[in-house]
Amino acid sequence: MNGKPIRTVLRHARGPAWNANLLTFNQRLGHAVPTAELEDDPTSLNDHAAESLRHMVEHAAHLLPAQGPIEVFVHHNTLHAFEEQSFHEAVKSGLARYGAAPYFTEQEYRQLYAEGRITDSDLEAVIKDDLGERAGEQINGLGTRCEIRYAMLRHPLHIGPDAELRWVVAETDALQRFRERTTQINRSRIVSAAKKWLQDSAGRPEATDDQNGLLKKFGPNIDNWSDSAWEAFSLHLLWRTCLNGVSSITPASLPPTYDRPRDLLLHATGEDIDRHVHEVLIRFCAAYVDQGYSDWLLPNRDQGFFESFGSLYSESSRGLDRWLKRLPDELSFLRNSNATAEASIEVSLRELGIAESGREEFIAQSLLALGGWAGMIWQLESGVDWVVHSIPKGSLVGMLAVQLILEKHAIRKIGAGEFGEYESLATIVESAQKRLSDPAPLNRERGAFLLFQVAQMLGWTPLELQQLSEAEWKQLSEEVEVFDGIERHRIFHEAYERKYHHAAINAFSKHAARRREIELPWGDRPDFQIVTCIDDREESFRRHLEEVQPRCETFGAAGFFAVAIYYRGAADGFYKPLCPGVITPDHYVQEDVGYTFEGVHQGRAELRRRLGLAGHLFHTRSRTFLGGIFAGIVGSLATVPLVARVLFPHLTARIRRRFGSLLQPPPVTQLQLERHAEPPGPTNGHIGYSIDEMADVVIRLLQDIGLTKSEDFSRLFIVCGHGSSSLNNPHESAYCCGACAGKRGGPNARAFAEMANDWRVRALVAQQGITIPNDTTFVGAYHNTCDDSVVFYDLDQLPSSHREDFESARDAIEEARRRNAHERCRRFVSAPLNITPKDALRHVEGRAQDISQARPEYNHATNALCVVGRRDWSRGLFLDRRAFLTSYDPTQDDEEHSILLRILSAAIPVCAGINLEYYFSCVDYKNYGSGSKLPHNIVSLLGVMEGTSSDLRTGLYQQMVEIHEPIRILFLIETTPEAMLSIMERNEGIARLCQGGWSHLAVIDAETSQVQVFRNGKFEPFDKSDGELRQVSSSLECYEGERDHRPFFSIEETEVSS
C-alpha cells in the first residue's frame, strides 16, 4: 500500500486530484455525484472524527449479545446493556430495541390463571401494591382504579388490529350475547338500563336517530321481544354509546420513522437489502473468526476485518453476484487511497445521507441487524483469552465499514430496479419516501371495543356512560388504555412470581423452626463430608445422599473451589481457564502421565494426531468431484454406526469406550501442582502454586463453607466438582460448571484435595487458626450431571486406614445417584413414571450417549432460588431441584461480614446471570434465545447458526428451557438486614441486581425463623401465610407419579442406629 501502514489515516492535500479520482470512481459506479460532495476528502479523516466514530461503535457494542465462544459458555444477563435500569423498564427497552417479548403472552398468563398457578389474591395484592395510594381513586363514579384493573386481568380481553375488531363486531356474536363471564347482576343492570333508555328516548329528538336505527334492526314491536333480543339490543346500545363516546378523543397516529434506509426501502418496495448483504457478510464473518474449520486462511487477517475483506474482494469481480460487480472498483479505490475503516464509514454515512444527529442510532441498528456475528467479533477483539486464533482490535469497526459498503451496492440494485435512473443514493431514499402514503388516523373502534368489554365486566350501563362529559370520556378511555398489554403482563408476572416466592419463604420459615427441634444425626463426627458446587442440579443429589446416609454432612461452594487456574489435561492441546468468567487466573496447572507410562502416552498421542489428520484429509477430499462420487457410493456404510448409536446407545457406548481406551491417556496421571520458581506461568518450573498460595486456597474454601473447627471435620472429606457430557450437543459447555467458565470442575476438585492433603499446607493453615485433624483425608471427585456417574481421583494415594470409610461413602453415593436419576426421569416423557431407580440410571446413561437426543438433561431449567446459609435449617426440605445451595456460617464471619461479601460477590452475579438467561430465553426463545436446536449447525467452531447461513444464534435453545418457569430468582440469605444493606453499599453489582428488581432478596434468622423481604429499598417483615408445609418420609413421596413442578415438602429425618 505504497509503503504506508494499512491503519494510517490518509492526510494528503485536498485538491483537484482527489476530486477527479472520486468523480471518475463514481462515474464507474454509474451515477453522478454533486459537486458539494467532492469538496472534502472523507478518507483524510482527522483523529477527532475517527475517534468519534470508534466511540459510537463501542457504545453500540454494549447492545450486542455478550456471549463468547460456545465452548466457553458463561451464563449472563441477556439484557446486560440495560442493567442500570430497573427490571421492568429494561424489558420494555429490550422490546423497543430488539423486538423481543418482555414477558409471557397474555394467553399463557391466562392459562396459568385458569390452572390456579396465579390466584385472585395474588393479582389483587400486586395491583394494590403497584398503585399504592392511587388504588382507591374513583374514576368518574364508575369504580376505583384498582377495580378496573382487577377486572381487566380477571376477564380475557379481545384486542387486535382494527380489521380484526371490525370483523368481530360484524360477524361474531359479540353484539348478540354478553361475555361468558359477565355476572347475572351486571347483565340485569345493563338490560334494565337499555329498557329505560328506550322509554326515556321517545321524547328526546337527539335520541331519535339511534332509536330508529336500533328499532329498525330489532323490530318496532318491543312487547314481543324475547330475552335474547333484549340482550342483543342492550349490547348494541352499549356498543354505540362506547363508539360515540371515544369518537372525539381518538388521536391520530404519528408517521413512522426509519433509522436505516433498509427499513424505508423494505416498507416502500418490499425488497430487503439485508437479505443480499448478509449472504456475503455471513460467509466472510465465519471465515474471519474461524478457529480451525476452514482449510485456507484469509489474506491479511491479522491486519483487521476491513483490510482482509479489501484484500480478498478488490482484485476481481469473478464469482460475485451481479449487484456486486462494481465492488472491486470501490475497494480498490479505498485501498489505493490508504483509507481506514473509519474513513470508509465516513464516506458511506455521507453517501447514505445519515445526519450527524442520527449517526449513533444508525450505527447501533446496523450492527444489530447481524447482532450475533457482530457480538462475537466484539467479544473476540476485547482481549478475552478464549480462543487460539485471536483477532485484532478494531475488527468490529471494520465489519461496520464493510457492511455499509455492501448496503450501498444493495440499495443501488434496488434503486435501479424500482425507480429507474438515479443521481445518488439520497435520490433513491427520497423516491422511497414519496412512495409511502401518509398514515391513517387510528381507528376509534379499537378503543371503543376495549371499553365495551370492560363495561360488561363491571356492569357499566349505557345510561351511566351517556352522562359522561367529553373530558370524563377522555379520562375513562385513558385509564383503560394506559393499562395496556405490557402493563397487564407486568402485573400478571408479578402475581406469578409472588405465589411461588411466598410459598418458598413460608416453607423455609416453617422448616427451619422444625429443624431447631432436631439434633444432628451424626453425634461427635459425621461419617463423611462432601462439598459440591452450588449448582441447582446438586440440590437433589445432596438431598438423596443425606437421606441414604443421614450421618453424612454436605456443603455447597462455587465449583472451582477457590482454585482459579489455566488447566491443561494430558490429552489437551491448550490451556483453558477453569474459574468464573469474571476472574483471570494467575496460575497454571498441568496433568502429566506417570513416568512409567510416558512411552505409551507418546505413542497414543501420535496415533491421535495421525487419526485426526486422516479424518481432516477425508473430510476435505470428500468435497472434491471424485471424492463426492466415492462418498456417494460408500457413504451408506456410515449409516450403520449412526443407526446403532440411536437404537443401541448403551452397546455403542461400550464399544466406543473399548476402542477409545486405545487413544486415551494412560489411567495413571498426576497434577503438576507445586511451583518451584516465580512468577506463575505455563513453562516448566513456573506451573502450579507455591505452598503459601495453596494454604490461601484451602483457608478460603474452608472459611466460605464454615468448616473451621477441628472437631467438626470427618475422617473422609470428598471435594466433588461437576460437569456434563453428551453427544451431538454443541451447547455442552452450557451444561457444565459455570464457576469453571463452562468447563468440567473435576481438575479443580482434584487439585484442592491434593493441596489439603499436603502436611506443609496444613501447617500453614493451622497457623491461621484452622487445624485439620491428622486423620482427615481429602478425596477429589467428579459428578457428571448428565449420566449421574461419579468418579474419584488419586485413589492409589488413599491411606489403607481410610478404605473402609471410603467404601461406605462410595456405596452411599452409588445409591444416591440412582435415586437422583429416578427423580430426574420424571421430567422425561420418554421415561415411564413407574420406572425403577436402577432403570432410571440406565435411562439417563442412554440419553448421554444418544446422538438424536435434543434434551440430554434439563440443565438449570426451573431454577428459582438461591439459599445462602448453614445447611442445618434447610436440610430435608424438598426444593424440586430449583435451588442453588451455598454454604455460609454467619457465626464465623467478622463484623464487616467479609466472608459473606466474598461469597455473594460471586454467587449473586453468577446465579442471577443463569436465572436471567433462562428467563429471557424462555419468554422469547426466538429473539433472546437461539431458537430450536434441530436446525443448528456449528460454524467456525465458535457457535451455531440455523441451516447453512444465518446470524450467529446466541442464548439458550428451545428444548433447554421448555419446562422452565421464567421467575426472577429469590436470594434467601442467613444474615441480618443491616449486613445485607452494608454489602449492597460496598458492591455495586449486587446493589444493581437487588435494588433494580433483577432478582428478589430476603434474609432469614435461622434461630427465630423470622424472614424479612427487601422491597422498595428497605427490608420489611414477611407476613407469614397460613399455608401448610406437608411432612413426608422421603423425597420419593414428593414427586412420585408427577411430571410437573412440585410444591415444597418437609422430609422427616431418618433415624440412625448407633
What does this protein structure show overall?
The structure is a single chain. The protein is of the alpha/beta class. Among the domains are: 236 residues, no CATH class; 140 residues, no CATH class; 260 residues, no CATH class; 63 residues. The protein is built from 39 helices and 20 strands. The N terminus is likely disordered.
Key features?
disordered N terminus, 48% helix, 39 helices, globular, six-stranded mixed sheet, 9% strand, five-stranded mixed sheet, 1058 residues, alpha/beta
Please report the number of helical segments. Answer: 39
The fraction of residues in strands falls at 5-15%
Question: What is the averaged pLDDT score?
Answer: 89
Q: Gyration radius, to the nearest Å?
A: 34 Å
Q: Globular, elongated, flat, extended or rod-shaped: what is the shape?
A: globular
User: What fraction, in percent, of the residue positions are helical?
Assistant: 40-55%
Strand order of the largest sheet: 12-10-15-16-17-18
- Helix/strand-derived category reads alpha/beta
**Terminal CA distance:** 85 Å
The major beta sheet can be summarized as: 6 strands, mixed
For the secondary structure, the number of strands is: 20
Low-confidence stretches: 1-39
Subcellular location: Cell membrane
Membrane topology: Peripheral membrane protein
Subunit structure: Forms a complex with DabB.
Organism: Stratiformator vulcanicus
